[in-house]
Design brief:
The protein is mainly alpha-helical. It folds into four domains: 87 residues, Serine Threonine Protein Phosphatase 5, Tetratricopeptide repeat, CATH 1.25.40; 98 residues, Tetratricopeptide repeat domain (Serine Threonine Protein Phosphatase 5, Tetratricopeptide repeat), CATH 1.25.40; 90 residues; 107 residues, Alpha Horseshoe (Serine Threonine Protein Phosphatase 5, Tetratricopeptide repeat). The protein contains 19 helices and no strands. Helix 2 packs antiparallel against helix 3 and helix 13 packs antiparallel against helix 14.
Length: 455
């Protein structure tokens, strides 16, 4: 086998790596525990308990980041509940961990070939996020419109069904709310939000009945279950009860046999006392052995936790480095937007000093390109009156670069989109920011004129 710590070939039966002293035994135990949680998630997925399955599978990959089966199944479940972004995230990680004979690659190919469907999924996410903004503004009517559109594009979007149900409940339209709750539960019988809303509408319903009424669909992929057996240890109470019972039995027998033979009775009582002392010693020895076992198990558990933390740190570092490599490849292919999104998602805390230099250099090359693309696209959408898409692109432009020669205009146009949508307070706030941050620029001058007009 190959040691995870130093990547050298070692014998399969070793407890520790002879080269780097990596804890092989603990690593194998963590892998087995990860497989158990995968099996649990697989069974839950078959029963359409998709939220519960997500929790189990996240635990599985939390223990073992390289559990390909768990990642692939987790991606399928996210795809089933309409969260395509999360599905692709796990499939991308899976495909990077195993580049051949990996079902995740097939899944991504099928999705990427259907560009219209992928665009529909992306639009549904944008509409869902916009509906959240409308709800924050206490504008449920517009939120309902956005959620309906999102579900037309993405009918399995469980979160959208639940949020739309909540909006209808707020509007006192219980029948419509119940309709979307039932649709959510047909997809995911364990959706906590759907169950909570259903309890509010039907206080007497049975949670157990959901698994019997949920719609069953054939499994998308065949992943084999891994069964790991466990043995149980004898209970301490049973051992002590047996010993105490033995002592009582001896006492009854020897106090009732031939009471007129005093000497014989005394002799036997003495023997019984000796037996009692011997049994007490056995009890003390057993308790001491149990305490030693408990102490050893606690130490082993502590060691497992430390090993697991080390593995997680290494895995996270590998994932960040893989993102940088992938972003570098995208940059070489002039796919600046995709490269920028990957770089923005990187956690610098897990980068080595050498990798961090590479990351900073790549970011300095990618972000300005992506910022310019989003700015130009935002201007195009703004000129066509598509203020929602324009604002999204202007915000991304500023996310990647705030000191470009067009950054003042990007923030100015964001304020303009809010003014067009009659959110004047937000527009005034942003105009003030343009003036403060970009004083002396054309964007600041334009913002000042608009602010005076609004006042």
């Amino acid at each position: 086998m190959i040691c995870v710590g130093c990547q050298r070939e070692i014998q399969d039966n070793l407890i520790k790596c002879p080269y780097c002293e990596f804890d092989i035994a603990s690593y194998k135990k963590i892998k087995r525990l990860s497989a158990q949680f995968y099996n649990k998630g697989l069974e839950q997925a078959k029963n359409r308990e998709l939220s519960n399955a997500i929790e189990s599978l996240n635990t599985a990959i939390g223990l073992d980041k390289t559990n390909i089966d768990a990642r692939n199944l987790l991606g399928l479940i996210y795809y089933e509940i309409g969260e395509i972004g999360m599905a692709l995230t796990h499939w991308v990680i899976s495909s990077n961990l195993k580049k051949e004979d990996n079902l995740a690659i097939n899944y991504m190919d099928k999705i990427q070939k259907n560009t219209m469907q992928l665009e529909a999924y992306n639009d549904s996410i944008k509409m869902f996020n916009q509906s959240l903004e409308y709800i924050k503004q206490k504008n449920e009517d517009l939120a309902i419109i956005q959620l309906k559109k999102a579900l037309q594009l993405n009918p399995h979007f469980v979160k959208a069904h639940c949020l739309l149900a909540a909006c209808y409940m707020s509007e006192k339209e219980q029948d419509k709310a119940l309709n979307h709750i039932e649709k959510a539960l047909q997809i995911d019988v364990s959706s906590s939000n759907a169950i909570r809303y259903l309890k509010m509408l039907k206080p007497n319903f049975s949670v157990a009945s959901l698994s019997r009424t949920a719609e069953r669909r054939p499994a998308t992929v065949n992943l084999k279950s891994k069964n790991i057996s466990r043995s149980s240890s004898p209970q301490m109470g049973q051992l002590l009860g047996f010993i105490a019972g033995a002592v009582c039995t001896f006492a009854v027998l020897f106090t009732l046999v031939i009471p007129d033979k005093t000497n014989d009775l005394k002799k036997r009582i003495s023997e019984l006392d000796s037996e009692r002392q011997r049994l007490e010693e056995r009890i003390n020895e057993t308790i001491e052995e149990k305490n030693e076992i408990i102490t050893a198990l606690r130490e082993e558990n502590k060691s497992l936790q430390e090993s697991n933390n080390q593995l997680q740190q290494k895995q996270l570092a590998m994932e960040q480095e893989e993102k940088i490599n992938q972003a570098e490849s995208l940059y070489g292919s002039r796919k600046y937007e995709e490269a920028a999104e990957l770089l923005y998602s990187i956690d610098e805390a897990f980068l080595s000093p050498e990798t961090k230099i590479k990351y900073e250099n790549l970011k300095n090359n990618v972000f300005p390109q992506a910022a310019r693309i989003h700015y130009d696209r935002g201007r195009s959408s703004y000129s066509k009156g598509n203020y929602e898409n324009a604002r999204a692109d202007f915000e991304k432009s500023l996310l990647y670069k705030q000191d470009a020669n067009y950054s003042d205009n990007a923030l100015y146009y964001i304020a303009r989109t809010y003014e067009h949508e009659q959110d004047l307070e937000k527009a005034k706030e942003l105009y003030s920011q343009v003036i403060e941050r970009y004083n002396g620029t054309d964007g600041a001058a334009n913002a000042n004129r608009q602010l005076v007009n609004l006042e």
